[in-house]
Amino acid sequence: MLAGSLIAVLVKKIFIGRKWMNKKLLMVFVVCSVSFFCHFLLDAIPHKDYAIKSEFLFLSSVYLLIDMMIGSCIILFVFREPLMHFLRVVVSVNVSKIEVADNLKLASPFFLASLGVFFNILPDVFMVLKRILGMDFYILSQLEIFHNAMHSNIFPDLFWGWASQISFSFMVVVLLVRLVFKVENKIYSWLAVEEAERILSEVSQDREIEK
Fold first, then answer.
1. Under a CB-based contact definition with an 8 Å cutoff, are residues 163 and 48 in contact?
2. For residue 22, how far is the Cα from the chain centroid?
3. CA nearest 3: which of 189, 11, 54?
4. Of 120, 96, 115, 101, the residue nearest 190 (C-alpha)
5. How far apart, in whole angstroms, are the C-alpha atoms of residue 55 and residue 101?
6. Terminal CA-to-CA distance of the chain, rounded, Å?
7. Engineering a disulfide at 119: which of 36, 62, 95, 206 sits with its beta carbon 3.0 to 4.6 angstroms away?
8. Low-confidence ranges of the chain (pLDDT < 70)
9. What secondary structure letter does DSSP report for 4?
């Protein structure tokens, strides 16, 4: 979850202010595809994994829910400012279209992070559909083969498994906090430039009308 949100912020940082055709669609595509394949790269690193055998299924489900709750809380905290801009749009009354558009632009890192999180955990969702729910589609079978081939066969003990994952998570959170702050400032600067261009355009139009 954290890796997916980090990928989203990095992509957003690269794309901000660039005048590319279909920029938004391209940005979404890059976030989704990179986040999806990043899952397999992370699986290649030795780590402590969940047991999906029937006798451990309940316990693994509890651990999974705890993991997802912790990850969600961290992501909501890091992206609290973009989330607040989105909520302003939701509850906004009698505001201009420009204000709504600006708030949505400021909320975009949260949207992208949500996509990054979803696509980063999607390969495991497919494995649940295949192994636990018994959905045996060709695509799921081929994906499971690729997933197993990429997955590390080294399973560290409890201490080293937790140590490596906590260290990785801490590093990602630090990067996220720094990058989200920079991206927010970059969006503010971009919006300031757009506002200046709008004002200049209105002034020039007024002058033309006066003439």
1. no
2. 20
3. 11
4. 101
5. 51
6. 58
7. 36
8. 19-22, 51-57, 132-133, 202-203, 205-211
9. H
How many C-alpha atoms does 46 have within 13 Å on its Cβ side? 10
Contacts (Cβ under 8 Å, ≥6 apart) of 9 = 109, 112, 113, 176, 179, 180, 183
Is there a contact between 8 and 178 (Cβ–Cβ < 8 Å)? Answer: no
Give tens-digit pLDDT for 81-90: 999 988 888 8
Residue type, 91: V
Contacts of 44 (CB under 8 A, 6+ apart): 150, 151, 152
The whole domain housing 191 covers: 2-210
If one counts the domains in the chain, the total is 1
Q: What is the pTM of this model?
A: 0.81
DSSP secondary structure of 94-128: S--HHHHHHHHHHHHHHHHHHHHHHHHHHHHHHHH
Residue whose pair of structure tokens reads 């632009």 in the numeric block? 105
Q: Are 2 and 71 in contact (CB under 8 A)?
A: yes
Question: Do 109 and 8 form a contact (C-beta atoms < 8 A)?
Answer: yes
What CA–CA distance (Å, rounded) separates 106 from 184? 7
In whole angstroms, how large is the CA radius of gyration of the chain? 22
Which residue do the tokens 């939701």 mark?
A: 90
